[in-house]
Amino acid sequence: MTIPKPVALVTGASSGIGEAIANKLVAAGYRVYGTSRRGARAERQAFAMLALDVTDDASVEAAVAELLRLEGRIDLLINNAGFGLAPAAAEESSIEQAKALLDTNFLGVVRMTRAVVPHMRRLGVGRIINIGSILGVVPVPYVALYVASKHAVDGYSQALDHELRTHGIRVVVIEPGYTKTAFESNSFQADAKLDLYEDIRVKVTKVVNQAMASAEGPDVVADVVLKAARADRPKLRYTAGKAAAQLQFMRRFAPAGLLDSGIRKAMQLA
Question: Which PANTHER family match (predicted)?
Fold first, then answer.
């Protein structure tokens, strides 16, 4: 008797971390379906792509229904789709921009989870892995809305794991640090910029660009995702990469004042 391959669904898989995760899962023996708003790409790839917009309820329901029609089950959901804002003060983004970021980064996770959990619950098994950020537990300035969205993902993931364990489903959050992808170059600019923040925007952007230049690649995150997917007793959260591990260590063991001053020094703030 042939044991069927587990089926994985990875949102935001057209590039960067999502694509690396999808490829890693294929190599590990999963049947993988990636998603993007554009759906299938012209070039050949190791996994199928579905069209899915995580901000659209109907799109989410249609993609999940299509995958269930094709495979009959979903064993692993990776919520990766998201975007960032270029460094700017919190007050430089409009409410509309804040809503758009949270709609993708947090409510996109909620929509996908609500669509997939009933099917996992019916089977009595499943795993949901949400791609958060170390900034979801160690906030830094001038990316406040992104930090808020990842804080929401972190809290939601931990609460949800408690709810779903009794149904055989585990929920995990992965916390990468800076990762060398096109994420930063694709980040949106604040839409309500103020002149008084111009100098600090330039300075913080330079700091971020320097950090990105030496950042680890997306395979580092993909390796941690695979570890979490395979674990018999997964942890609630995993850091991914050296920088994230260092920040998590400081958060746990360093005095709060030392962590605070370390963040300000790293961001070159007065």
Answer: SHORT CHAIN DEHYDROGENASE (PTHR43976), SHORT-CHAIN DEHYDROGENASE_REDUCTASE FAMILY PROTEIN (PTHR43976:SF16)
